[in-house]
Amino acid sequence: MMDLLSLPSELLGQIVSFVAEPDDGDDWVPxxxxxxxxxxxxxxxxxxxxxxxEFHDVETRALCNLCLSCxxxxxxxxxxxxxxxxxxxxxxxxxxxxxxxxxxxxxxxxVHYVRIIPAPISxxxxxxxxxxxxxxxxxxxxxxxxxxxxxxxxxxxxxxxxFIALLLxxxxxxxxxxxxxxxxxxxxxxxxxxxxPSFLSNLETLWVDSNEGFSGYSISAYEEILNxxxxxxxxxxxGDLVGGLFPSSWAPGTLAAEELMFMFCYIDPTxxxxxxxxxxxxxxxxxxxxxxxxxDKPRMTGMREFIATELLEALLPHKNTLESLHIEFWRExxxxxxxxxxxxxxxxxxxxxxxxxxxxxxxIVVQHALLPTHPQFPASLKQLRITDCNSSLREIAANIAxxxxxxxxxxxxEVTVVAIDVTRPIKLPGQRIPPGKTPEQCFLxxxxxxxxxxxxxxxxxYKIPDLDDEDDLHLxxxxxxxxxxxxxxxxxxxxxxxxxxILFELVMxxxxxxxxxxxxxxxxxxxxxxxxxxxxxxxxxxE
Length: 543
What we know:
The chain is α/β, with parallel strands linked by helices. It has a domain at 331-543. It is built from 20 helices and 15 strands. Helix 7 runs parallel beside helix 10. The longest helix has 13 residues, at 71-83. It is elongated, with a radius of gyration of 28 Å. Residues 470-493 are annotated as: Disordered.
């Protein structure tokens, strides 16, 4: 121990920081937020002891052990313990941290990241009258004036909103905040802004985490937070921004937000227009309402949701700064039960208009139903992902490939198609199979449209879930996809290529259930089971 303590403080601090976060970097928290956004809400159903809740991960335990070893290591490790706070249990840790930093305010200066998970919610009441009086005294010190009685009443009702406000009142350097939308009232936060002008002044990221059980809260309730000068990335789940609730303080050119994310939210045309006008510079916009699960459906209001053309019109003031655009609207699951129903659905969707004027746009994620037959993308485009593709993509792909060969997309290197049934995008218009072609040949003919270009074309499948576990349903972006190594046939003839593992089974199962591939079933026990019937073959045999 003496040899370790003899090291320079700077070096010793670096060693301790690796204990806290081995791969730490400047952007570690926003990336964690994105990863956590995809995590199932019920991952944390198991009840643990209070001690396990308090120190629930290996890193925290290691840092606490360092604090107990000697004063010097405690001075280095303590800021790292308090830097990132996550409460995944019954929220007793939230009470504990709030009490700790009110007793010793200097600890609150270490806190940069707070995430309070909305489910399961079971906030424990202060364990004794002494604890309740402690929080009452903390409220008194805020000098809230006439609002003090309302805070006392909320404390008696065990309102999580008050405890979050008390926690944040002592964290002046917090940069990243995730709160449970639909489960808290924002009035206590609004009161804090009125009594402390510097409240949350360093906040950069806001994530209002929610689920389908608590949808429909008003996004405008976070008016003061979005007005913060350093807030760059606000993310909302299952919220509404509709009607006459748009905040008057969000005047044109007043919001610093650059990356806006809305997941399973509902926004009307007027609100999206005003919001984009209020933002100074938008670099990324995400409106992701599509899901394979019926329960993820946004709460529909009496107001009409904006359409694709209205969004592009709203984004026009940011045409020189927008780098990433993600548009996916909700659709009913039954729409894809038949090709006819889906094609009728596609015909009624308002398409994304020309994007050529968006000179900085590099990444586009868009639903298949929103694309015209001949999309017009900007020359800056690098990555294109077409999601929820449930019918032939050949006309769209052919037009994009032709534009690539004509030099319209010099930077485009990736075109990815995502489908539930991976056999649908590879068919000809009208959902026909070319005579004498196998599914792998259908795919290769589609991919070969991009030959002599820099584009890597691939098809990904949404992960097929366990029927008893709907939470397992998501894009299988890490799994196998259609690729040349999987499809190029060997010397044994068509269909004998190296289509591996899950993808092979997926294509085979889908194809054998597809009426357009029904003729394959008669060859189920034949080496020619993937070949389609071609009249020319009969002619050759007759000769």
